[in-house]
Specification:
Shape: globular
Strand order of the largest sheet: 1-2-4-5-6-7-8-9
Strand content: 15-25%
Distance between the termini: 8 Å
Structural class: alpha/beta
Number of strands: 9
Order of helices and strands: HEEEHHEHEHHEHEHHEHE
Bound molecules: guanosine-5'-monophosphate, manganese (II) ion
Radius of gyration: 18 Å
């Protein structure tokens, strides 16, 4: 079984995000992030993506960036990433995430890993250098996830990156598929390898014929284009069964495993 390279101290439960409310909330979060960067307290948490068979097997992992507080406890990423996304610190987090992912791939020759790409980092020289250097060694086991919203904001930059990285074997997934920002033809035009159906469609799909209709249509379009489909955010057996019946190729979500720093 694959072992990620960097470990969190054992037995440390996740903690909440420092407050973002009130004056100085953003500053507090920036300080937490800056200290974590300088103190080597950023980690990837790995969540399995499994085959949609009756006996699921892990096909790859998605890496989510996490920070540890001074006591080694995990802090949920959503708050701090959103708070610094537009600033230079956001680029540093993206670089750290990519560096950790590439290191994990280099140390584990069986590992396939997907990393979330922020469109804002595509033009960043440090990030780009890291990607090119890493892709030469482990590009064929790396998948980069581009969200629908990122694609709609910077389509030319994303398209160019995809073209330039493809010869090195790097593949691309469209994240949050079905959340609403793109035209379906773009799936084909950009040459995505994988489409990840948004959690908002998958959650409770067993109880909504509307969600079933939309997810079924998205899967059908992706398959017509020769693109694999992952259902994100699968939390119950009922959701998994429905996504299997609709033809999803892979399933991901708490039902199969939460993101973990240590596997
Ligand atoms: O945008 P993206 O799909 O990469 O976001 C993934 C986020 O969803 C991560 O923060 C991850 O921890 C979270 N996540 C992963 N699986 C599940 C799940 O089954 N349910 C919910 N609610 N969140 C999930
Ligand atoms: Mn993702």
């Amino acid at each position: 079984m694959f072992q990620p390279p960097l470990r969190a101290p054992a037995g440390a439960p996740p903690t909440g995000v420092p407050s973002t409310s009130g004056q100085g909330g953003r500053t507090d979060l920036s300080r937490v992030v800056r200290r974590a960067l300088s103190g080597d307290r950023l980690r990837l948490a790995y969540q399995p993506v499994v085959t949609a068979e009756a006996r699921p097997e892990v096909a790859l992992y998605e890496g989510f960036i996490r920070i540890l507080d001074e006591l080694g406890r995990e802090i949920s990423a959503n708050g701090f990433v959103a708070a610094v996304e537009d600033s230079p610190l956001g680029r540093e987090i993206d670089c750290a995430s990519l560096r950790l992912g590439i290191t994990a791939l280099r140390l584990n020759s069986n590992l396939r890993l997907s990393i979330n790409l922020s469109a804002r980092s595509i033009g960043n020289t440090a990030w780009r250098n890291l990607l090119e250097e890493g892709a030469q060694r482990v590009g064929h086991r790396l998948l980069l996830e581009v969200s629908e919203s990122s694609l709609s904001v910077r389509p030319e930059q994303v398209g160019r990156l995809m073209q330039e990285m493809r010869p090195m074997g790097v593949r691309f997934a469209l994240d949050d598929f079905g959340s609403g920002s793109i035209a379906l033809l773009q799936l084909r035009e950009f040459g995505f390898h994988q489409a990840k159906i948004d959690r908002s469609l998958v959650g409770g799909i067993d109880q909504s014929s509307d969600h079933q209709a939309v997810a079924g249509a998205l899967i059908s379009v992706a398959h017509q284009f020769g693109i694999d489909v992952v259902a994100e955010g699968v939390e119950t057996e009922e959701e998994a069964d429905h996504m299997r019946a609709l033809g999803a190729d892979y399933l991901q979500g708490y039902l199969f495993g939460r993101p973990k720093i240590r596997l």
